Amino acid sequence: MSISFAPPAMRAQASDLAVSVSPLGLIELSDEEFEVHGQRMSRYASYWAAYLGYMWAYRAAPGETQVTANYARALTEYAVNFCFGRGVHFGAEKKYEHVIPALLKRIWEVDNNKKPLIYEMGLQGGVSGDAFIKVAYDPGYTDSAKNVHRGRVRILPLNSAHCFPEWHPHDRERLIRFKLKYRFFGIGTDGTRAAYTYTEVITDDTIAEYINDQLIEGEGIQNPRPNPLGQIPIVHIPNMSVPGSPWGMSDMQDILGLNRQYNETSTQIAEIVAYHAEPVTVITGAKASNLERGAKKVWSIPSKDASIQNLDGLVDLDGPIALLEQLKRMMHEMTGVPETALGQVQAVSNTSGVALAIQYQSAMQRRALKLMSYEPGLKKINELALRTLFLFEPDALKYNPDTEGIQKDFQDEQIDPRDPEVYLTTCEWPEPLPVDVLVKLNEIQLKMELGLESKRGALKALGEEFADEKMQEIFEELQKDVEEQGALDMLRAKIQSAIVQETGLTPEGVEVPPPPTPAGEGQQATSPMNTGLKPQNDAHKILTELVTQAHGTRTPPRRSSENSPAQESR
User: Fold this and answer.
1) What is the rounded CA–CA span in Å between residue 529 and residue 549?
2) Could you count the other beta carbons within 10 Å of the beta carbon of residue 437?
3) How far is CA 542 from CA 176, 221, 438, 529, 548, in A?
4) CA spacing 20 to 30 A to 50: which of 91, 98, 234, 555?
5) Which of 59, 107, 61, 118 shows the shortest CA–CA distance to 85?
6) Residues 6+ apart with CB under 8 A from 411
7) Strand ranges for 262-315 from DSSP E
8) What is the mean pLDDT of residues 213-227?
9) In 3-state terms, what secondary structure has residue 109?
């Protein structure tokens, strides 16, 4: 498959290896790195320059028009948000559902910020064509204010231009060596600000770190050091898989040329409009030194042979405007984003879910293709994150009922990290299109009435990530409601008995309580107020409260007037 690259003049900083998102904008490559990765670096530079709005090969002179409509960025961001905007839910094997989902929730949502993290992965892949994610562990520490910060598993999206992977020559899924290389600013030995190159080389066995090609050395630093995980904690996700190539395809590849042509045509139209808004004035047989141009100006020229006219021409803009519409339509078709998706005014209607899915069918198809690449990558990230957590926090292997799910009979108290099923996770992607909740509820209700759906499945269909915990919460709430209703019924019965005892009148709609049974020998007397819990005290307390509320206990305080004797005596 041939890939067309933009000319060097279209790349960021006018350099083949310029990468706009690196600290210095330039990464120094060795001859070997340039030979293997130079073309990829050039491709990244072109895409990121266009994403940041640098689409012109030259800078217009001051006062000249240069229109830049960055549809490449808008369409790419829309595609990323359409695919990953609603996030993803992770599941596990049934025998580990009480532990693994809670650990993944902690890793993604407590140790990291899940939604922005997944969006960053998608954007890095959407622009560059490749996303690289590193999994690491950040040890706990105590800061200077004695605040304790516990350890956490880090999921770090890397700049694709800083990544130099080396795959097995016969297996593209097996990573045998990975190099992370970028430049940064620091303070040199002479106290001045200087640029340094940081390099980290990771294999299955060792991890080595370099500064300017020199191993980092110091007290207590072991370099290179053993790799405790036993595998390279890097995941590569191609945005759109290309057959026969380990690299992915960017969402911007097919629309950069169209976007540049759109900008050039828009600039030409703007220049034509500006020319006709301020046309050139041609004066024949007179001098223009004393003739002032502008609105509401009067010129008096004594020569009858003089003539003045604007240099004008008949220009039809329908053709250029039609070209703009065609270019924009082509960009939407290339990316699968409907033309109405970027804010175009459209009539609001109660379009059904099926009709909406058909309208966005091209976007749904592109989303399905992207998820085919991202879902295995997320599963691999989950595996590396769990292995890292178990390595540095062995207590996470034990079931914790306070922070984890509901344990069932067939589930173990402690999981075995050597079991491969521990790391088998699933990805559940919520629907990207809006869903009418009432229609969804009616559908689920009908399925449950026909016996085709369970409560747990209904909660899953409504987007509940932890269905068992939600069902337990609902049960406990119903149980509490029953207990509180029982307490109210008991209190109501006591109040009614107290009213009968005090007034001898039976409230309307209340049955007369049975008379108290005389106490025999060895038998306690019962009464309407006898419930087994200090009946006399309860009856007396309720009776006192009723009398107080009915008759009051004291005279309300009376506001004294301004001329009261009490104030006069003050």
Assistant:
1) 20
2) 9
3) 80, 75, 47, 10, 10
4) 234
5) 118
6) 95, 96, 97, 98, 399
7) 280-284, 307-311
8) 80
9) helix
Spatial distance between the Cα atoms of 174 and 19, rounded to a whole number of angstroms: 27
User: Which residues, including other chains, have CB under 8 Å from residue 80's CB and lie 6 or more apart?
Assistant: 119, 122, 123, 126, 251
- Fill in the amino acid letter for 169: P
Two structure tokens written together for 293:
């141009």
- Quote the tokens at residue 23: 């600290």
CA distance 60 to 270: 14
What's the residue count for the chain?
A: 570
Tokens of 26: 């330039």
State the pTM of this model: 0.74
Task: Determine how many CB atoms are found less than 10 A away from the CB of residue 525.
Answer: 11
Least confident window among 21-25, 187-191, 226-230: 21-25
Quick check: 67 and 267 in contact, CB under 8 A? Answer: yes
Compute CA distances 186 → 77, 193, 274, 525, whole Å: 34, 6, 49, 90
User: Among 42, 52, 43, which Cα is nearest to 21's?
Assistant: 52
Tokens encoding 11 = 């790349």
pLDDT tens-digit map of 410-446: 888 899 999 999 999 999 998 888 777 777 788 888 8
Handedness of CA 448, 451, 454, 455 (dihedral sign): positive
Query: Is the separation of the CB atoms in 208 and 200 below 8 Å?
Result: yes
What contacts 283, CB < 8 A, 6 or more positions away? 291, 306, 307, 308
Closest alpha carbon to 46 in 55, 37, 36 = 55
Q: CB within 8 A of 183, min separation 6: which ones?
A: 22, 23, 24, 26, 27, 28, 195, 196, 197, 198
Report angle CA 220, 222, 227 to the nearest 5 degrees: 135
Mean model confidence pLDDT for the chain: 80
The neighbouring-strand residues paired with 327 are none
Which of these, 478, 440, 477, 446, lies nearest to 459 by C-alpha position? 440
Beta bridge partners of 54: none
**487-514 burial by CB neighbour count: b if 16+ within 10 A, else e?**
eeeeeeebebbbbbeeeeeeeeeeeeee
Which phi and psi (to 5°) does residue 98 adopt? -85, -10
In angstroms, rounded to a whole number, what is the distance separating the alpha carbons of residues 101 and 114? Answer: 14
Give 416-424 contacts, CB < 8 A, sequence gap 24+.
Answer: 417/387, 417/390, 421/93, 421/95, 421/96, 422/93, 422/96, 422/100, 422/386, 423/382, 423/383, 423/386, 423/387, 424/92, 424/93
Q: How far apart are CA 326 and CA 318, in angstroms?
A: 12
The end-to-end CA distance of the chain, in Å, is 102
